[in-house]
Amino acid sequence: MDTQAIIDDYVNKVAARLPRKIRNDVGLELRTLLGEQLQAAARDAGRSPDGEMATQLLRRFGRPEEVAARYAPPGFQLIAPEYSPLVVRLATLCIAIQWGLTLSAVFAARMSFSDWLLRWGFSAFAWLGLLVAWFGIASWVQRRSPVDPDSGLRPWTHWIFWVPFPRQWRPGEPQATEWRAGLHAAPLGAVLTIFFIAPAWILSHLLPAGSNTAWALYEAHFQRWFLAPLIALMAVRLLLLAAAVRSEPWRARTETLRFVLWVAFVVVLSWTLFAERIFAFGVTDALFKSWLLIFLLVNVIQILVWLWRETTRVRVPTRLARPR
Smallest Cα–Cα separation from 228: which of 272, 292, 273? Predict the structure, then answer.
């Protein structure tokens, strides 16, 4: 990442934690201030600003949640901002596991959907309340006994209440990590796309001769009307991902298209989940739909996160897009 990309990523993270009415003004002010400080540091060092110099500047300036707290009006915080993403991820995982393990009874016609909703569907959200209470205590412990991530030492209260240990922070690191993960996921996505075309046929060539693979056959209506559009969406998304990972300009140009295809893919899969039989064999269909529900839940949350990031991103006027 170049210096301006590192600063913009940092400013967007700060702005996302600010009230909407002051978000863009503070973001632009902070962007200008950091740019000026970076140029001053470069003059003092007698060299052009680079990524490492920008990283050191931002680490001295403070974590995004700390900087946002300087601008935002004080208010009540049950959970420390640095714990909020972990709470959301853990709650999503717990809810998805409970739904995935219990919805198979609905797909196998052993329980009606309304019974499942009353017994297991709504009760899964109790995990969110439990996690909020737990991390509320952890936040209180953290405020009373703050931890320096550089020291490696933790008070005994942190071990009792399992307060997450804050790791060393590096500006721009999450964004780079996301794209490295995308690069590593691309080959797996290609293999799964190929396997999804004809799982029964592929398994018949991988398993010993004479093995029964009828349980992996698609239902005729799904294969005729939905399989081809799903394969096409998966293939195009993989190609765009590969282009975006290899080239940063392509990443920016195709961002909207990749998002639209992502939403279309989730919509088509959601339709097949509730309105179509995917596999001809009942048990296979029930198990696959249980997994598919978890997959769709995770993707819907990721789409909402993407939209939230877009709405919280600082809008830089064209004349200020790049420093002179």
Answer: 272
Q: What phi and psi, each to the nearest 5 degrees, are found at residue 165?
A: -85, 120
Question: In sequence order, what are the residues at sequence separation of 6 or more whose Cβ sits closer than 8 angstroms to the Cβ of residue 194?
Answer: 202
Res. 83 pLDDT band, cuts 50 70 90: confident
What integer pLDDT is reported at residue 152 of this predicted model?
A: 47
Which of 142, 19, 135, 126 lies closest to 78 in space, CA to CA? Answer: 135
Q: How far apart, in Å, are the Cα atoms of 41 and each of 28, 54, 66, 188?
A: 20, 9, 22, 43
Of 10, 12, 138, 161, the C-alpha closest to 82 is 138
Three-class SS of 143-201 = HHCCCCCCCCCCCHHHHHCCCCCCCCCCCCHHHHHHHHHHHHHHHHHHHHHHHHHCHHH
Q: What is the pLDDT of residues 137-184, one digit of tens each?
A: 877 776 666 655 454 444 444 444 444 545 555 675 545 445 555 555
Any idea of the CA torsion for 296, 308, 186, 227, to the nearest 10 degrees?
40
Q: Report the distance separating Cα 54 and Cα 262, nearest Å.
A: 33
Rounded to whole angstroms, how far apart are CA atoms 12 and 304?
A: 17
Task: Kindly tell me the burial class for residue 14, based on how many C-beta atoms sit within 10 Å of its own C-beta (0-12, 13-18, 19 or more).
Answer: buried
| The length of the chain, given as a count of residues | 324
